[in-house]
Amino acid sequence: MLLALALSALGCGDDGADRPSDPVFPERDWEAEADLLLAGPDWYRHAVFYEVYVRSLQDSDGDGIGDLPGLTSRLDDLRALGVDALWLMPIMPTPFKDSGYDVADYEGINPDYGAMSDFEALLDAAHARGMRVIIDLVLNHTSSEHAWFQESRADKTNPKADWYVWSDTPSDPNNSCGTQNVVFGPSAWEYDAGRDQYYFHRFYPEQPDLNYESPEVVAATLDVARFWLDKGVDGFRCDVISLLYESADDCGFLDKTKAYIKQLRQVVDEYPDRVLVAEPTNLTDAKSYFGSGNDQFHMAFHFGFGYFWSLQFGSQNAAATLATFQNALTEYPAGSQDALVIGSHDVVRAFDAAQGDESRHRRAALIQMTMRGSPFIYYGEELGMRSGTAKVVDFRDSARTPMLWSGGPGYGFTTGTPWLPFGADADSTNLEVQQGDPASMHSYYRSLLGLRRGRAVWGSGDAEILSVDHAGVFAARRFDADQRYVVVVNMTDDPVSAKLALPGGESRPGRVLGQGTLTIEGEAGTLSMPARQGAVFRTK
Ligand code: GLC
Ligand code: MG
User: Fold this and answer.
1) What does the radius of gyration of the chain's CA atoms come to, in whole angstroms?
2) Per-residue pLDDT at 58 exceeds 50
């Protein structure tokens, strides 16, 4: 078993087909290197992040609802996978109309998840293991049950009367842009009898938008950030952050929103080693979130790949994937860092996006773990967890089913009845059955994360898209002064032979993961790769 795990960490299948080819490059103490990389201010470039829906990760008290003590008890399992940092979806008190993205108190803990002392214990336990914790910060709107909104709606003259976006008509000209852009439901305006007025909500009616034209709202929300930074969180994932301000004539990412973000960044920079990651609303280009490279976000999700990879595998063509990474390399300011995903709580699970073709999920993850950026794994992705069919909050619950740690009936998640039924194929997609099996998805993820560990090139090295004479092949080079790699993914369902253009001077390639062969002569690489495969070759 130990041998199998060690071999799988090297990318070796037990059939020998995956065995790394010569030459073998000298190994180092990658754990020691990892400790150094993860301790410095650039830790976020080298960390593997893991997105956690606390409600679905681990129940500790048998009520069927995941909680903070449960999560704390699983830190060692996540560490063993190779996770360095957690992103917690909202953990604050909430009426749960949008799974916690409707915050009723910015400075509390959802009692279903525990108490503030449980959160502090989680932070301590994570930090003691060298792990970081960032939390979701939902600034665009609050819950309609938040005390700020209760006060604001009371009348037109109270001190918080202008903390939300009120209008006498359901189509205030100052917000026509927002009106066109309601995300959930037919209208962005909800009538409120108390004020005999309408309030603006980009999302559910229970999520009124804050009015950032009020300097008091700006000050109050920056104080929320300080509150959690003082607690010791390592940063924030900033929810729909481009939507803070509305405008009649510009539906884009407004300059005043960017000015707010710069203020938020200054607050964050008052604390050592804290980071901000943006959820962009422009899905194919996150450039505008980085500002000059050090005055807005440290990271932004790269949805151009993250949300569209399954279409690109479907088309058996690498062009769109290559183009989106090329855009990041040429257009983003120096210092920017993609946050790389292949799934999240908002979209269908990666395995289902791959239409049940596990090799597509694996190849998408291979690109995610090896391109320039920091990978964010959505919990359960490492098991190929399937979607569920039950709905408690909304349609997105299909990707939010409880984690599968071991066998049924509670799958190690709960001793009680889970708040949401488990997803499909739970008996074959739980950690217990996968962790001893070198061919499992979990072992594959361990190999990928093992390959990143301690090697600075993946998090902060350069990248170059390679030109290939085959439209179905994705190829890129990653390099720094220390190491060089060539990553190749056959995005088609057929074997491929192809020529790659390389810069010259590369060593004879040693395959460190996956299947296929690459030979290099001068500036020409000759690739031969089986159907549905990808590989990583080391060339220095
Ligand atoms: C973000 C979240 C999503 C939520 C929305 C409103 O897109 O990821 O889950 O519904 O913001 O807060
Ligand atoms: Mg519980």
Assistant:
1) 24
2) yes
